[in-house]
Design brief:
CATH class: Alpha Beta
Mean pLDDT: 95
CATH topology: Rossmann fold
Strand order of the largest sheet: 2-1-3-4-12-11-10-7-8
Low-confidence stretches: none
Length: 203
């Protein structure tokens, strides 16, 4: 858990809750001051992109602040990255929430809207982790996490799927690829299981 965790502040919500969760685990964390801090001489060992909100608004903010390019380079270099909620969805190429707006495109596939009438999904949901997942190590195959979302990730390559959940459809609720990880649920709001997952990611 050595090293500083940087939390990207791009105007999204829940930043304080994520910071508090990292600190509670004994981690050293602070908000990233700008995209230039993600360069070759970055003071951070790992990065978190949390937040709620609209896909288009979030992408607009990341682009305007130049974080989009910096995050792309960070992920390309296979440095530890964790996306939470919209931080997962932004990794994909497109979203039905914002037709015509491209995402970061670091994972092939897109983001779809739940087909049922009762959306968003709000509350605890069972999450089935892949046996090989390091992110969910020690949590058991079926843990419960807290979700709030109307859209879900649909990877083009199922090998990146680290966990699945069900809400009208069976969908990808977490991804892992090298040092890249992202979850649809909110670990900072998911009690002991959420903290255990964050601890796994922080090392």
């Amino acid at each position: 858990m050595a090293g500083v965790t940087g939390i990207i502040n791009y105007g999204a919500g829940n930043l304080g809750s994520v910071m508090n969760a990292v600190l509670r685990l004994g981690g050293n964390a602070r908000f990233v001051l700008g995209p230039e801090e993600l360069g070759a001489k970055s003071p951070y060992e790992r990065i978190i992109v949390p937040g709620d909100g609209h896909f288009a608004t979030a992408m607009e903010k990341l682009t305007e602040t130049a974080y989009a390019g910096a995050l792309g380079e960070w992920i390309k270099a296979d440095k530890p990255f964790l996306g939470i909620c919209i931080g997962l969805q932004l990794l994909f190429e497109w979203s039905e929430e914002a037709p015509g707006v491209g995402g970061l495109g670091v994972i092939a596939g897109g983001v779809k809207k739940f087909p049922g009438r009762k959306v968003p999904q709000i509350g605890w949901n069972q999450t089935r982790a892949a046996p090989s997942s390091a992110l969910f190590g020690g949590l058991g195959k079926n843990s419960f996490f807290y979700y709030i979302h109307s859209y879900y990730a649909a990877p083009g390559d199922r090998s990146v799927t680290a966990a699945e959940a069900e809400y009208y459809v069976t969908y990808c609720s977490a991804v892992e690829r090298g040092a890249l990880a992202a979850v649809q649920f909110h670990p900072e709001k998911s009690g002991a299981a959420g903290l255990a997952l964050l601890k796994n990611w922080m090392g």
